[in-house]
Amino acid sequence: MHSAPSYKIILGVTGGIAAYKACELARNFIKAGHEVRVVMTAHAEQFVGALTFHSLTGYPVLRSLAQGTSDLSATSHIDLARWGDLFVIAPATANFLAKARAGMADDALLTELLAFQGPVLLAPAMNTRMWDAPVTRENFSVLLERGYHSVDPVEGLLACGEEGAGKMAEPAQIFARAITLLQDSTAKPLAGKTVLITSGPTRNYIDSIRFISNRSSGRMGHAVATAASALGAKVIFVSGPVEERFQKSPTGKSIAVETGDQMLAAALDAFDEADFVVATAAVADFAPHEVSEGKIRREGTLDLQLRASTDVLAELGRRKRSNQVFVGFAAEVGESEVEFKKAREKLEKKNLDLLAFNNVSRKDIGFDVEQNEILLFSKIAEPVPLAKAKKEVLAREILLRANELQGKMS
Ligand code: CTP
After folding, report:
1. For the chain, how big is the Rg over CA atoms in Å?
2. Parts of the chain with a pLDDT under 50
3. Beta carbon of 329 within 6 Å of any ligand 1 atom
4. Which of 137, 224, 312, 372 is most deeply buried (CB count within 10 A of its CB)?
5. Are 326 and 199 in a shared domain?
């Protein structure tokens, strides 16, 4: 008989009257065959006793890091974070949202959350006025941009007697959302597929020690590699010189290159096995006609004659097979019809299926930041806006769309 998967759920409970509903939520998970471990704040214990959750889940509740009441080894304060498949915080109070946004870790719940690397689901609950406070909304939207998920509070009669939005969603609804998230995050739709990624800047040398390069941190490419790995793909990651943490894919093969020609050679080596090509690299566009031997002396002026360098993606595009999906990235300064037209031309010229367009003149997205906002151009449909989010979240979305496209082709 095929049995449903059993998931490990960390249930974080913060101090609001809706904490009693977290008991029902824990019951829902247990009844469906999942394991639940609860971590509570001191304020939550003023509403519901830890013994209630202990009895419901069969495990001691983590109440403080010093206390070590968890049956998990007390050696590490992040044991719970390592254990769970999903972190649900229900209820999530305004105070909790503020602390989580700030990255604070002054209790067991926040510490586990900070160390947790899987999907997080928030079920906010608070008085309407607190929910409507601009600072709460800002904290909440920053958490969503970072990739947290939410079951938003609903309208209703609140415990304080007021009516309005702020009531925690029903446990059944939170449960359903949690299961969908777990299924999505553990699904491997790209299993058996190979994703070839170019990332970071390249360098074109003027003499033995000087070069022309492009601005690029390699964050987006690394995010694509991380998302592709999580989706089960085999990753081949060709990266120019970037900070150590962005230099390698979490899984698969990583090849370090310096020049555009080296990037092309490495990409060509892997090309035959690639189902997807995702070009995030900022290949240095100009190269000196010739590279001077040794070091050019700093005397007078220096006239440099530059030529356009090899277009890695266009070269790959020429060899593209009909079942390969190509995704390019276009960093443009501005977002008017002029830039959009250029994006459409790039799609055609480089033989791409998708082109992720972003406006690097904005300070909040693009270069050197964790977030991006993309307009996804496609050969076959109108451009689709992908809302501002963590680069990894966007990378996942783009890969899933590329996979969908490939499904339609074959
Ligand atoms: N690209 C590439 N090799 C190059 C230039 C660009 O592989 N020499 C790839 C990038 O990785 C990106 C896409 O082509 O996926 C678009 O890059 P972009 O710099 O926007 O395009 P360019 O062709 O350089 O056009 P321009 O600089 O004129 O905007």
Report:
1. 25
2. 1-2, 69-75
3. yes
4. 224
5. yes
111 lies in which domain range? 8-186
Give distance in angstroms: CA of 282 to centre of ligand 1: 7
Residue 303's CB is within 10 A of a number of other CB atoms, namely: 5
Exposed/middle/buried for residue 277 (C-beta within 10 Å: 0-12, 13-18, 19+): buried
Reported pTM = 0.78
Clarify whether residues 118 and 217 are in a common domain.
no
Using DSSP's 3-state secondary structure scheme, residue 5 falls into coil
**Residue 295 domain-assigned?**
no
Q: pLDDT tens for residues 212-268?
A: 999 999 999 999 999 999 999 999 999 999 999 999 999 999 999 999 999 999 999
Same domain as 170, residue 23: yes
| Residues 234, 116 within the same domain | no
- What spacing in Å lies between the alpha carbon of 372 and ligand 1's midpoint? 18
The answer to whether residue 3 is domain-embedded is no
Does any domain span residue 294? no
Q: How far apart are CA 84 and CA 263, in angstroms?
A: 39
Cα 408 to middle of ligand 1, angstroms: 27
Pair (327, 208) in one structural domain: yes
Indicate whether 151 and 263 sit together in one domain.
no
Q: Which of 160, 304, 306, 387 is labelled catalytic?
A: 160
Ligand 1 in contact with 279 (CB < 6 A)? yes
